[in-house]
Amino acid sequence: GIIGANPGNAFNISGVAYGASLSAYRIFGCRGGTSDDVIIDALLRGAQEGQDILTLSIGGSRGWSESSAAVVASRIAASGIIVTIAAGNDGAVGSWYTASPGTGIDVITVASVDK
Questions:
Q1: Between the chain's N and C termini, which has fewer beta carbons within 10 Å?
Q2: Is the distance from CB of 78 to CB of 43 less than 8 angstroms?
Q3: Secondary structure, 3-state, 63-93
Q4: Where are the domains of the chain?
Q5: What is the pTM of this model?
Q6: Contact 107, 84 (CB under 8 A)
Q7: Residue 43 has pLDDT above 90, yes or no
Protein backbone atom coordinates (compact mmCIF):
# COMPACT_ATOMS: atom_id res chain seq x y z
CA GLY A 1 0.00 0.00 0.00
CA ILE A 2 0.96 3.64 -0.34
CA ILE A 3 1.45 3.98 3.43
CA GLY A 4 4.48 1.69 3.15
CA ALA A 5 5.88 3.06 -0.13
CA ASN A 6 9.67 3.21 0.04
CA PRO A 7 11.16 6.63 -0.85
CA GLY A 8 13.02 6.76 -4.13
CA ASN A 9 10.72 4.38 -6.02
CA ALA A 10 9.99 4.85 -9.72
CA PHE A 11 6.79 6.78 -8.95
CA ASN A 12 8.48 9.19 -6.50
CA ILE A 13 5.83 8.42 -3.86
CA SER A 14 6.83 8.09 -0.22
CA GLY A 15 4.62 6.50 2.41
CA VAL A 16 4.34 8.02 5.87
CA ALA A 17 5.37 4.69 7.40
CA TYR A 18 7.75 3.31 4.78
CA GLY A 19 9.88 1.54 7.39
CA ALA A 20 6.93 -0.21 9.02
CA SER A 21 6.05 -3.88 8.75
CA LEU A 22 2.52 -4.28 7.42
CA SER A 23 0.19 -7.25 7.80
CA ALA A 24 -3.15 -7.86 6.13
CA TYR A 25 -5.94 -10.15 7.29
CA ARG A 26 -8.62 -11.09 4.79
CA ILE A 27 -12.08 -10.93 6.31
CA PHE A 28 -14.31 -10.65 3.25
CA GLY A 29 -15.39 -13.62 1.19
CA CYS A 30 -15.87 -13.63 -2.57
CA ARG A 31 -19.36 -12.16 -2.21
CA GLY A 32 -18.14 -9.15 -0.25
CA GLY A 33 -19.79 -9.92 3.08
CA THR A 34 -18.46 -10.96 6.45
CA SER A 35 -19.68 -11.58 9.99
CA ASP A 36 -18.72 -10.48 13.49
CA ASP A 37 -16.97 -13.77 14.27
CA VAL A 38 -14.59 -13.30 11.32
CA ILE A 39 -13.94 -9.65 12.26
CA ILE A 40 -13.29 -10.68 15.85
CA ASP A 41 -10.89 -13.41 14.73
CA ALA A 42 -8.89 -10.88 12.68
CA LEU A 43 -8.80 -8.39 15.57
CA LEU A 44 -7.64 -11.05 18.01
CA ARG A 45 -5.05 -12.38 15.56
CA GLY A 46 -3.60 -8.91 15.05
CA ALA A 47 -3.42 -8.36 18.81
CA GLN A 48 -1.87 -11.79 19.43
CA GLU A 49 0.72 -11.21 16.71
CA GLY A 50 1.84 -8.03 18.46
CA GLN A 51 0.59 -5.42 15.99
CA ASP A 52 0.89 -1.86 17.32
CA ILE A 53 -2.02 -0.53 15.25
CA LEU A 54 -5.12 -2.28 13.92
CA THR A 55 -7.03 -0.48 11.17
CA LEU A 56 -10.35 -1.64 9.74
CA SER A 57 -12.11 0.05 6.86
CA ILE A 58 -15.45 -1.60 7.54
CA GLY A 59 -18.69 -0.90 9.28
CA GLY A 60 -21.90 -2.78 9.83
CA SER A 61 -25.42 -1.54 10.37
CA ARG A 62 -25.32 -2.09 14.12
CA GLY A 63 -24.67 1.29 15.72
CA TRP A 64 -24.18 0.15 19.31
CA SER A 65 -21.05 -0.20 21.43
CA GLU A 66 -22.36 -3.53 22.77
CA SER A 67 -22.01 -5.46 19.48
CA SER A 68 -19.56 -8.36 19.72
CA ALA A 69 -16.96 -6.84 17.39
CA ALA A 70 -17.20 -3.43 19.10
CA VAL A 71 -16.65 -5.02 22.53
CA VAL A 72 -13.57 -6.89 21.30
CA ALA A 73 -12.23 -3.73 19.62
CA SER A 74 -12.82 -1.84 22.89
CA ARG A 75 -10.92 -4.40 24.94
CA ILE A 76 -8.00 -4.43 22.50
CA ALA A 77 -7.88 -0.61 22.57
CA ALA A 78 -7.96 -0.67 26.38
CA SER A 79 -4.89 -2.94 26.31
CA GLY A 80 -2.89 -0.16 24.63
CA ILE A 81 -3.13 -1.16 20.98
CA ILE A 82 -4.33 1.65 18.71
CA VAL A 83 -7.54 0.60 16.94
CA THR A 84 -8.91 2.74 14.09
CA ILE A 85 -12.16 1.84 12.36
CA ALA A 86 -14.29 3.49 9.68
CA ALA A 87 -17.50 5.12 10.84
CA GLY A 88 -19.42 3.45 8.02
CA ASN A 89 -21.54 4.64 5.14
CA ASP A 90 -24.84 5.24 6.89
CA GLY A 91 -24.80 9.01 7.38
CA ALA A 92 -28.31 9.21 5.94
CA VAL A 93 -29.52 7.38 9.06
CA GLY A 94 -28.50 10.37 11.16
CA SER A 95 -25.55 12.62 11.83
CA TRP A 96 -24.64 10.74 15.02
CA TYR A 97 -24.94 7.21 13.62
CA THR A 98 -21.66 5.32 13.68
CA ALA A 99 -21.43 1.76 12.42
CA SER A 100 -20.08 -1.11 14.49
CA PRO A 101 -17.31 -1.97 15.36
CA GLY A 102 -16.40 1.74 15.12
CA THR A 103 -18.74 2.28 18.07
CA GLY A 104 -16.23 0.66 20.40
CA ILE A 105 -15.06 2.50 23.49
CA ASP A 106 -11.51 3.95 23.17
CA VAL A 107 -11.57 3.09 19.45
CA ILE A 108 -10.60 5.88 17.04
CA THR A 109 -13.43 6.17 14.52
CA VAL A 110 -12.74 7.88 11.20
CA ALA A 111 -15.34 9.52 8.96
CA SER A 112 -15.62 12.04 6.17
CA VAL A 113 -18.23 14.46 4.91
CA ASP A 114 -18.91 15.76 1.43
CA LYS A 115 -19.23 19.47 2.25
A1: C
A2: no
A3: CCCCCHHHHHHHHHHHCCCEEEEECCCCHHH
A4: 25-110
A5: 0.82
A6: yes
A7: yes
DSSP 8-state secondary structure symbol assigned to residue 95: T
Residue 19 has pLDDT above 90, yes or no: no
Cα 104 to Cα 80: distance, rounded to the nearest angstrom: 14
Q: Write the DSSP symbol of residue 25.
A: -
Q: How many C-beta atoms lie closer than 10 Å to residue 51's C-beta?
A: 19
Strands in 53-56's sheet, in edge-to-edge order, are 53-56, 82-86, 108-110
Say whether pLDDT at 53 is over 70: yes
pLDDT in tens, 70-99: 999 999 999 999 999 988 776 677 666 788
Rounded-to-integer distance, Cα 85 and Cα 59, Å: 8
What is the Cα 51 distance to its own chain's centre?
13
Q: List Cα–Cα distances, 12 to 2, 7, 8, 64, 100, in angstroms.
A: 11, 7, 6, 43, 37
